[in-house]
Every structure is written in structure tokens, then in C-alpha cells.
Design goal:
The chain is α+β, with helices and mostly antiparallel strands. The protein contains 16 helices and 22 strands. The strands form 6 sheets. A 7-stranded mixed sheet has the order 9-8-17-18-19-16-20, sandwiched between helices. A 5-stranded parallel sheet has the order 11-3-2-15-21, covered by helices on one side. It is globular and about 65 Å long. The N terminus and C terminus are likely disordered.
Length: 531
């Protein structure tokens, strides 16, 4: 069977320069006489992507998830409010960007037109000092996206652009993946921005949107990850910074339909079933212990940092010493808080559905769920109130939780003063500390998809893919890549993938930057410094 050509694959977005990764040629399905078996450990985005690609090609898949529902860090669960209403709580707002090609491809299995996603009109940013930024009218195609942002932004002006160190800023325009990690992984995001003289006002707004998406303080975050974020969402992609959100809670809009789809492909989904150990056998397979021992031809570990470390530390025959030590060194980002408030009064009509904030204290963004989510909208219509969600990222490990929760409510009153008069009908607070940290110099310690065991692969947003992907899209992409690695061994054609361009796309823009550098005699701050 021939490999599909790019025109054979439905384009996932509007960017004509999106990069296609074609799978190796092979059979369309595994041998039905003796289909291989795979245990997928973890029912988040990465695990579901891996299970989908494998099951569609006839592999017998068992999916293990320790929680009672699918979705991983994008899961939801029922809660009963004080007024007797059943609602869905989650770990908070997630933006489904248009350049999430592979995640959106996964969701198309049950929603071909992505009708269960709805677009928000803007991605507004607001600083306590009164500055505002918006991406609604910014052109989406580079370099016009950057030029348009500077032309419209009160926080990043032409004068600021002239004051920057253009040679030091070149990595923002000349991103190459994975070379960007060799270049900038040894520098913090904060220090890199200081070196290029990034405007302070824009630093508090546009920059923090990118860095804090990783739930990390910019002084701890690798500059390579931050620069990659600029490339994916702004300077390297023509999809723009606008995004979609599910029109119902995550379980209803996304994961229950996908779970039914997997069951329709004979996937054995075992919820509330944690896996304790994975042991390689002399025959080349694996024994998976989940309270009972079962044998599989292959295993996909699609876990968060703590889950991966737990299984590896409890499975002494898994992997070689250096790999086990690198897994043990993985770190999680600082704690974050999600507060969801059911208020007895509406928020002002002109407030956006989502707002990124800076300078107000610990609050990083404010969402008004009833502006787009059906469940919240129905509650607000029935009661005359509103459903508001607040996020606070990278909080101190030793902070007092009750104090932070009260502080977040006070900060909401500052951002949206009309909420001071509202009574809190009910509230839920989620404290989590399980997102991967991408620290300075940590890139080489991340696990890759493949391991020393041919039948053992790793997936998740903590994985090193060497592709321009991040966050939920990294999880989905790595899940498909893990499945493809196994399918190759069985001579079966895997899943075709898309990414944003793997390198900066504007030669003229880069040349202009370099000319400005020569005329002003600037020097490179980090690019020429040995790492």
C-alpha cells in the first residue's frame, strides 16, 4: 500500500505551510488471525490518541485509567450544588487553538465538523495599570501578525521595537525545532526576555500569557519552551491566537463520545484501575499488574510525571539505569488553583468570556463560563446569576489554601467591580500540582517516545517529541507517535500528523532584523554564548 500524499489528507487548518509527517508505508490493519495486544496506561489525551490509532488498525487494546472518568487533566466530574443542581467540575479552562491539528483530528472521530467546539471572539489581556491588548483584529499570517500586533498594541510600540536588541531577538524569528533546545534550553525565559530588552509592559501581558501557560514562573522556565510557544501561536503559524472552547462540559462534549467510539473499536476501557507495575518478559512482551497480572505484546505509558515515576520506580526491570534516573529527575510545576464560583448576579454584559490578567496579584485569568458552556448557561438563565472561574498559576508550595482562595475572590472584585455585590451561591476549589515543569537545562532529561524496549513507548505532554507542539497538542501528537512506533514493528501504516512549520518562515523579516543589528552595532546576548 502506498504512503498517502499530502493532498490525500484533509488539511487541518488554514496555514498552507503546515508541516505534514507521513507514516511509513504498510498494511492498513494488523493480521486479524493473531492481532497484537497493547496495554495503554493512562486515559488522558495522550492515552486516548494512542488507543484510537491502534484500535482503528485492529490492535486489541486495553486502556487503564486510575480515575473514574476519561480525560486526564482535561477531565470533569459531577458535583451537587447547594441549590440541589448537579453541575460538572473540572481542573479549569482549556483553549483549543486552531493549530492543535492532531488533537482536533482526534476529536473529529466523533465530531467531524467540530460542531461541539465554539469560537471565542477575542483573546484579550488586561493589566491592572489600565493597559489592554487584544488579538481579535491582529492578522493571522506572519509577519503581518507581528507587525499588526505592534501597530495596534499600547504595550508594544514601534519605539519599543527600535529599542530592542534585534540580534538577541533573532531566535524568536528563526525558530528551528529541535535546534532551539540546543540554543536556548540553558537560559531562563526571564533572562532571555531581559537580554532582548523586551518592553516591560508587554512583558507583563503578552509574555506572561505564554510562560504561565506552563504553570511555571518565568525564572524557572526554559527559554527554549517560551520561544517555541511564540513560534507555535504567533510568529510561526498562520492560524492566529484565537481559539475554540467546548460548548458543554468536557465529559459531555469530548470524552464520553470518544470513549464510546473506542468501545466500538473493541477497546476494553478499565476505569478506576491504576496500574502498579510493568515487567518485561523474556519472550518480548510485558506483564501489567493492575491488581491482577495480564500479558501484553506492547505497552504505552501515557501518564503524568508522578504516575510515570511511580510505575518506573516500582518496576525494577523496566529500562536501563540512565533512563530510570532521568525519569526520576523529572519535576512538576508549582501548585495552581482553580476556583469556580456560582454567583447570584450576572457579570456585566460587555465582559469577555475569557480574560488574561496581570498585575492584580495571583489571578492569571478570569472566565465567564455561562458565555459559552451550555450547562453553566442554563444554570445562569434559571437563577439570574453567573458562573465564573478564576485561575492562579505557580503559587508557593507552602501557601495557605484558604487565604489564597479568599484572595482570588478579592482580586475578581478588582478586575470586575460589579461582582462585589454578588453573593457566592456555591464554590469549588481545585488545587493541583501535577503538570510537567520544563526547567532550564531539563530538555535532555525528558523521555522520548521510544525506549530500550521495542514494545514499550511513552506518550504525554512531558515527552520529548522534537516537533513544534505544546500542551494538549503535544499530548495528542505524542500519543499518535507512540502508536505509530508500535505499528511500524507490525508493518502497519500509522497515523499521518500535522504540525505548524518546523522553522521560522520569514526570511525577509529576519534579514531586516539583521540589517538593523548591523547598523546599530548590537551584539547577541545568548545566541553566541556557549551553553
Amino acid at each position: 500500500m502506498r504512503a498517502p500524499r499530502p493532498r490525500d489528507i484533509a488539511r487541518r487548518g488554514r496555514d498552507r505551510r503546515a508541516h505534514t509527517l507521513l507514516p511509513r508505508p504498510g498494511a492498513p490493519r494488523v493480521d486479524s488471525e493473531r492481532p497484537p495486544t497493547t496495554a495503554v496506561v493512562g486515559g488522558g489525551i495522550a492515552g486516548m490518541a494512542a488507543a484510537t490509532a491502534l484500535a482503528e488498525r485492529g490492535v486489541r487494546v486495553t486502556l487503564y485509567e486510575r480515575e473514574a472518568s476519561l480525560g486526564g487533566r482535561v477531565a470533569g466530574w459531577p458535583v451537587t450544588l447547594r441549590d440541589g443542581t448537579t453541575a460538572t467540575m473540572s481542573r479549569g479552562f482549556h483553549a483549543f487553538f486552531r493549530q492543535y491539528y492532531n488533537l482536533r483530528g482526534l476529536l473529529r472521530r466523533t465530531d467531524p465538523g467540530l460542531q461541539r467546539l465554539t469560537g471565542l471572539a477575542d483573546y484579550p489581556l488586561q493589566h491592572s495599570g489600565g493597559l489592554h491588548d487584544s488579538f481579535r483584529k491582529v492578522p493571522r499570517t506572519p509577519p503581518w501578525s507581528a507587525i499588526g500586533f505592534v501597530a495596534q498594541s499600547p504595550t508594544f510600540t514601534i519605539r519599543d521595537l527600535y529599542r530592542m536588541n534585534p540580534r538577541a531577538a533573532l531566535p524568536l524569528l528563526d525558530v528551528r525545532v529541535p535546534e532551539v533546545y540546543e540554543q536556548l534550553d540553558g537560559v531562563s525565559a526571564y533572562d532571555f526576555l531581559q537580554s532582548i530588552r523586551f518592553p516591560e509592559a508587554a512583558h507583563h501581558l503578552a509574555f506572561e500569557v505564554f510562560s504561565r501557560s506552563f504553570f511555571a514562573d518565568p525564572r524557572q522556565l526554559s527559554a527554549a519552551e517560551m520561544v517555541l510557544m511564540f513560534h507555535i501561536y504567533f510568529l510561526g503559524s498562520a492560524e492566529g491566537l484565537l481559539f475554540d472552547v467546548p460548548d458543554e462540559p468536557f465529559p459531555d462534549a469530548l470524552w464520553r463520545p470518544l470513549g464510546d467510539y473506542l468501545r466500538g473499536h473493541h477497546v476494553d476501557i478499565r476505569l478506576s484501575t491504576p496500574v502498579a507495575t510493568v515487567a518485561p518478559t523474556h519472550e518480548g512482551g510485558f506483564i501489567v499488574d493492575c491488581g491482577e497480572e495480564r500479558w501484553y505484546d506492547s505497552v504505552v505509558l501515557a501518564l503524568d510525571t508522578a504516575g510515570l515515576q511511580s510505575i518506573v520506580s516500582s518496576s525494577p526491570e523496566l529500562g536501563h539505569t540512565a533512563w530510570r534516573q532521568s525519569v526520576a529527575r523529572l519535576r512538576t510545576a508549582p501548585p495552581f488553583l482553580v476556583s469556580r464560583l456560582w454567583l447570584d448576579q450576572p457579570v456585566a454584559r460587555d465582559r469577555p468570556g475569557f480574560l488574561g490578567t496581570s498585575g492584580y496579584g495571583t489571578v492569571d485569568n478570569v472566565s465567564i463560563l455561562n458565555r459559552w458552556e451550555g450547562e453553566a448557561s442554563r444554570w445562569a438563565a434559571r437563577t439570574g446569576g453567573s458562573v465564573v472561574e478564576l485561575h492562579a498559576y505557580a503559587l508557593p508550595h507552602d501557601c495557605a489554601r484558604d487565604v489564597e482562595q479568599k484572595r482570588l475572590l478579592t482580586q475578581l472584585h478588582t478586575v470586575y467591580p460589579e461582582t462585589r455585590a454578588a453573593l457566592v451561591v456555591d464554590e469549588r476549589h481545585e488545587w493541583r500540582s501535577d503538570c510537567p515543569l520544563f526547567p532550564v537545562g531539563g530538555y535532555t532529561d525528558r523521555p522520548t517516545i521510544r525506549t530500550s524496549h521495542p514494545g514499550l513507548v511513552i506518550a504525554g505532554d512531558l515527552v520529548r517529541t522534537e516537533l513544534p507542539v505544546a500542551l494538549m497538542e503535544r499530548a495528542a501528537t505524542s500519543g499518535f507517535m507512540a502508536a505509530n512506533a508500535l505499528l511500524e514493528q507490525w508493518n502497519v501504516q500509522g497515523q499521518a500528523l500535522w504540525t505548524v512549520p518546523r522553522r521560522g518562515r520569514n526570511l525577509a523579516f529576519r534579514a531586516t532584523t539583521m540589517m538593523g543589528t548591523s547598523s546599530r552595532g548590537s551584539r547577541m546576548a545568548f545566541v553566541d554564548r556557549p551553553q
